[in-house]
Write a structure and sequence with these properties.
With about 200 residues, this protein is α/β, with parallel strands linked by helices. It has one domain (about 1-15, about 30-199): Vaccinia Virus protein VP39 (Rossmann fold). The chain has seven helices and eight strands, in the order βαβαβαββββαααβα. The strands form two sheets. Strands 1-8-7-2-3-4 form a six-stranded parallel β-sheet, sandwiched between helices. It has a two-stranded antiparallel ribbon with strand order 5-6. It is globular.
């Protein structure tokens, strides 16, 4: 399992270089499950990669986000790509692979199908250094403690990974994950890397 943890503020922490990463993908077909999908920027990235390789090899299985504005954007911007859209992943039970959830695109029920790639830009509100309260110890440990929105959603991503075993995990969050202050033990960032690489 390869974990790529990115931030808008620092470069990829993947042990693979960009060239190695692209070579890994070339000549293979991959399915993608996207959680905390937002505006679906990974669709643009996937289409660019396919254009560069001159072949289609990335298939999006599903998207999931709890924001109604995200639902609207995904429907309008990517009607040919977003076929399954779920609401809040905190309500999902990834251990039960037969459970169905409402598909917000057409009102049908659908299961969470396994995927080769997990992509998630999970909530950063509790760890961003732009909010003074996030300098408190509780926020610095929210990923480890699976508290606040940031930590609880991360807990669900870990649950998904444990039971669905994607080959590649691409996560995005902010530089505030490395904020230690007076915290004893691992930072949020260190804990996240540790948990996903141990699975």
């Amino acid at each position: 399992m390869l974990v790529v943890l990115d931030s808008f503020l620092f470069a990829s922490c993947s042990p693979l270089s960009q060239t190695q990463f692209l070579k890994l993908l070339h000549g293979m077909d991959f399915s993608i499950n996207s959680f905390c999908s937002g505006t679906g920027c990974e669709i643009t990235v996937a289409k660019s990669m396919e254009e560069a390789f001159g072949t289609s090899f990335l298939q999006h299985n599903l998207f999931c986000d709890n924001d109604p504005d995200s639902h609207t954007f995904l429907r309008v911007a990517w009607p040919d790509t977003v076929k399954i859209l779920f609401n809040d992943m905190l309500t999902m039970d990834f251990q039960d692979k037969t459970k169905e959830y409402p598909n917000l695109i057409d009102g049908s029920a659908a299961t969470v199908t396994p995927s080769d790639i997990l992509i998630a830009g999970w909530p950063c509100q509790d760890v961003t250094t732009l909010a003074w309260q996030n300098w408190l110890e509780g926020a610095r440990a929210c990923c480890r403690d699976k508290t606040m929105r940031t930590g609880s959603v991360l807990g669900k991503l870990l649950e998904y990974t444990l039971f669905h075993r994607p080959k590649l995990i691409i996560l995005e969050n902010v530089l505030g994950l490395v904020n230690r202050g007076s915290l004893v033990g691992m930072t949020n960032y260190e804990w996240v890397v540790n948990q996903f690489t141990e699975l």
